[in-house]
Amino acid sequence: MDDKTTRILVCDDEQDVREMLQEYLGKRGFAVTTAGDAQELRSLLTRDGIDLIILDINMPGEDGLAALRSLRVDSQIPVIMLTAAGEVVDRIIGLEMGADDYLGKPVDLRELEARIKAVLRRRGQGSVKQESPAKIDTAQFGDYLLDIEAAKMTAGDGSELPLTAMEFNLLKAFARNKGRVLNRDQILEQAHDRSWDPFDRSIDIRISRLRRKIEKNPEKPTIIRTVRGLGYVYDPEHS
């Protein structure tokens, strides 16, 4: 990833939607340009370097699907489609035509921001540098030792603590980021599993289940701690 500001083009025929997205994403460090229709979209693409497009499906004249079709002839710029609730067929067609993601209206702004970051991360773009996790073989989680090479966790008496693949990936991510606060996006990136949904509370639920296995008091965790408003941290020295 590089340090340049990510440039986003929002194409939607509704002015209030364009202004809302421009204001919200602008406050979060993105440079946002807007277009009211597909023709204006293409005009802006010829003049400005754009990193990602947010494209509404339902626009008068040339709709979003037609605009996406013409765009994909000679461009692979990431595209997130906006669709009205229940338009499952349009969403499937959009993905098959090369859209990177879709989001239903009314738009949840925090979810949109998360999806933008996820798409840019998959495409190897973005405005935030990620530190490389440390390479380690073992890590102590309370009374348990995680053996990363063997993919298992054992207690002091040698007995093995059963772990799901997701729990092991979580522990490995925390072990390699000891003392570093990880937000949900970072956890998802480093402990990724296709069945996870980064936009619900699945990560929190899985960490809660993991705590019940490794913490002496899961209600007051000391091994994997919550940092309010930021994420989670594995800090064995603190515990």
Instruction: Report low-confidence residues grouped into runs of 5 or more.
Output: 126-130
Mean pLDDT, all residues: 83
CATH superfamily of the largest domain: Response regulator
Give the N-to-C terminal Cα separation: 34 Å
From the spread of the alpha carbons, the general shape counts as elongated
Largest sheet: 5 strands, parallel
Radius of gyration, taken over Cα atoms and rounded to an integer in Å:
21 Å
Instruction: Give me the CATH architecture of the largest domain, please.
Output: 3-Layer(aba) Sandwich
Q: Any idea how many domains? A: 2
Structural class based on helices, strands and sheet pairing: alpha/beta
The H-and-E topology, N to C, reads as EHEHEHEHEHEEEEHHHEE
Question: Helical residue percent?
Answer: 25-40%
* CATH topology heading of the largest domain: Rossmann fold
List how many beta strands DSSP finds: 11
Please, how many helices? Answer: 8
Strand content: 15-25%
Q: Biggest sheet: strands side by side, in what order?
A: 2-1-3-4-5
Oligomeric grouping of the chains: single chain
The CATH C-level class name of the largest domain: Alpha Beta
Subcellular location: Cytoplasm
Pfam family, one: Response_reg
Protein name: Regulatory protein VirG
InterPro entries: CheY-like_superfamily, OmpR/PhoB-type_DNA-bd, Sig_transdc_resp-reg_C-effctor, Sig_transdc_resp-reg_receiver, WalR-like, WH-like_DNA-bd_sf
